[in-house]
Amino acid sequence: MAEKRRSKRHARRLRVRFGEKGTAVFPYTGLTNDVSATGLFVVSGHNAKPGTRLHLDVTLPGELPLFVECVVARQVLVPPELRQVVKSGFGVRFLMGAELMAELVPAMTTPLKDDPFTLTFTDEAAWHAAVEKEFKRGGAFVWTPKAVAQNTIITVTFDLRFLGRQLAFEARVVHAMPGPDGRFGVALMFVDPGGAAAALTSTLG
Asked: Per-residue b/e over 95-122, b at no fewer than 16 CB within 10 Å?
């Protein structure tokens, strides 16, 4: 069941150069182990910590470069004596358009007034409580004016006014039920729960 909630992973071995956001060079190298629609896993001697923002230069077949901005979602540390069996490295989550636009053009990221999938937080304490009680479990619950079909993939945006930034994640509709006021309660599971948890935790300080 848990596997169905994640993007399908594909084994791909591609060369990668990477560096932390804000640097003009890519000082570290590695190889991809698997890729999905939401991220990839890098096998490397340099193990980036969860929450770190990275720029990746992935070499595609034909020596074509692909530049990606991402955040480290998980870290795998392996003792030297086991590295022939288990590879050390880190998994990253690709940053989505809403998150990048919030940084590039803040004036363009004002959420639509009636967008039920944009959740706005103006208070840090309320955000911390919501993350701990709900969002870190792998999903969210929202009210919508219209029914949403099960298994529909939508984008959930968290507008953190107190931080001046946004987070956006793809999520799958797992359940929808009518409410007493004519609205519909929609239960969502993040497509990449590990990546979402890492990003959410990074905002808690």
From this structure: bbebbeebeeeeeebeeeeeebbbbebe
Sheet containing strand 118-121, strands side by side: 118-121, 153-160, 165-178, 184-190, 139-144
Give the residue from 47, 77, 52, 60 showing the smallest Cα distance to 16.
Answer: 60
Looking at residues 51-70, what average pLDDT do you find?
Answer: 89
How much of the chain, in percent, has pLDDT values that exceed 90?
33
Q: All domains of the chain, ordered by start, with CATH?
A: 3-95 (2.40.10.220), 100-201 (2.40.10)
Residue of 10, 95, 104, 14 whose CA lies nearest to 52: 95
Question: pTM for this structure?
Answer: 0.58
- Residue 126 near residue 84 (C-beta atoms within 8 A): no
For the chain, how many residues are written? 205
Neighbour tally for 84: CB within 10 Å: 8
Q: What percent of the chain has pLDDT over 70?
A: 84
Q: What is the pLDDT of residues 138-190, one digit of tens each?
A: 999 999 999 899 999 988 989 888 888 788 888 999 999 998 888 999 999 99
Count Cβ atoms within 10 A of the Cβ of residue 13 and give its class: 0-12 exposed, 13-18 middle, 19 or more buried: exposed
